[in-house]
Amino acid sequence: MNRNGIKIEKLISFAAGELSEAEATKIASKIEHDAEAGRIVATYRAAREAFANDDSVAASATAVKRAKSLFEKYQSTTKSATSWLEAVDRFVASLIYDSRTQPAMAGYRGTAEAVRLSFECELGEIDVEIIPDNSGSTEKIKIIGQLSSDDATDGVQVALTDSGTGAMVSETRSDDTGMFVLSAEHGLYDLNLGINEKLVVVPNLEI
Amino acid sequence: MSQKYDTDPNLVEDCLTGKQGAWDALVDRYSRLIYSILRRYGMDNADADDVFQDVFTILIQNLEKLRDKTRLSAWLITTTHRECWRHGKRKPSHLELDERDIRADEPPVFLTEQWETQNMVRESLEKLGDPCKSLLEAMFLSSSDMDYETIADQLGMKTGSIGPTRARCFQKMESILKDMGFDTLEA
């Protein structure tokens, strides 16, 4: 095959440094006006240099096999971890109490920055206290919650998801008293609770 | 004739739809790249195996974010570098690099480019398969005093066919490299 009068074979020989000086000079001057030919030469030389200097080593068959097995494990983990968030029976909890709208009680010594909220729906009540989390280096907010329900309240899956994207931000399970603790940065979130295969959502919780 | 090269975005998309085969292909494609970086940073086999798993775990957790990436190689090199840094292996042991010049979050650019190029060349040769793979490898490694006759003899080919066959094989390799997004480097 020819490329503007230069045989590919000749180009590769030139790239490999196999031509006589006279022939190489002739080809070099033709390549100056032929970008495609120049690209072929450059690619051949780059590939040859890369291959000749390649000191890479293969991973062990065991390591490769373990890496491949991650897929199945990850598939089953993500399916079970998020499937409860897709429950068909969904209940949106309504706000019934907001400490920010209440007059200060005489003698009450609550945390100055804490916000207390209460929500209710058919399945129960959720009390939430939102306080600054000063334990780490970045500014975070702690959400301490308490679930009250006729259904079992221990071991309930609780997740904070981004209100806009639905992406998981933080998750936990309630303890044997129905209490749970989550941590997140300032933002707008949905608080999700999986109660008896149903989903309770506290939407647009501003933290 | 080898099959068309399956791009990284295609494989990632297939992974996200639950295809184990696509994940296997990604692991096969990048295992050598990742493992080699770990060994170059001075890790022994046991540590390298552990960090190797960590890197692939990070990859599988971030597939959704990576679906638009043309090439995963640069991202994987950076991730592997960060994991090496995290594990206390801060630089390739064989290189004279001032540690002040190395950032924890990304490797030196010249190394990233070098490793990416080597990985693509290796991948394209694997995709080509024999007889092209063996011929091009022999030609790439041949010294100036190795003649066509010796190579032809080694590969069981006719001497006169070496030049034309190499040209045809390289054109196929070039096409694969193009599909991979290989940018021609300066000669």
Give the topology, please.
The complex is a heterodimer of chains A (207) and B (187).
Chain A: E1 2-3, E2 6-7, H1 8-15, H2 21-31, H3 35-52, H4 61-83, E3 90-92, E4 94-98, E5 115-121, E6 124-133, E7 140-148, E8 157-162, E9 168-173, E10 179-184, E11 188-195, E12 198-206
Parallel strand pairs in A: 3-12
Antiparallel strand pairs in A: 1-2, 4-5, 5-6, 6-7, 7-10, 8-9, 8-11, 11-12
Chain B: H1 8-16, H2 20-40, H3 45-61, H4 63-66, H5 73-86, H6 109-128, H7 132-141, H8 148-155, H9 162-180
Helix pairs in contact in B: 1-2, 2-3, 2-5, 2-6, 3-5, 5-6, 6-7, 6-9, 7-9
What would you say this structure looks like, in words?
The complex is a heterodimer of chains A (207) and B (187). Chain A has 207 residues and is an alpha+beta fold. Chain A has helices at residues 8-15, 21-31, 35-52, 61-83, and strands spanning 2-3, 6-7, 90-92, 94-98, 115-121, 124-133, 140-148, 157-162, 168-173, 179-184, 188-195, 198-206. The longest helix of chain A is centred in the middle third of the chain and has 23 residues, at 61-83. The N and C termini of chain A lie far apart (68 Å). Chain B is mainly alpha-helical and 187 residues long. Chain B is 65% helix and 0% strand. Chain B is built from nine helices and no strands. The model of chain B has no long low-confidence stretch (mean pLDDT 85). The interface between A and B is large, with 42 and 52 residues.
List keywords for this structure.
heterodimer; A: 207 residues; alpha+beta; five-stranded antiparallel β-sheet; 12 strands; 29% helix; B: 187 residues; mainly alpha; 9 helices; globular
Which strand order spans the largest sheet of chain A, edge to edge or round the barrel?
3-12-11-8-9
- List how many beta strands of chain A DSSP finds: 12
User: Which structural class best describes the helix and strand composition of chain B?
Assistant: mainly alpha
Distance between the termini of chain B: 29 Å
Order of helices and strands of chain A: EEHHHHEEEEEEEEEE
* Major protein interface: A-B, 42 and 52 residues
Helical/strand content category of chain A:
alpha+beta
Radius of gyration of chain A: 33 Å
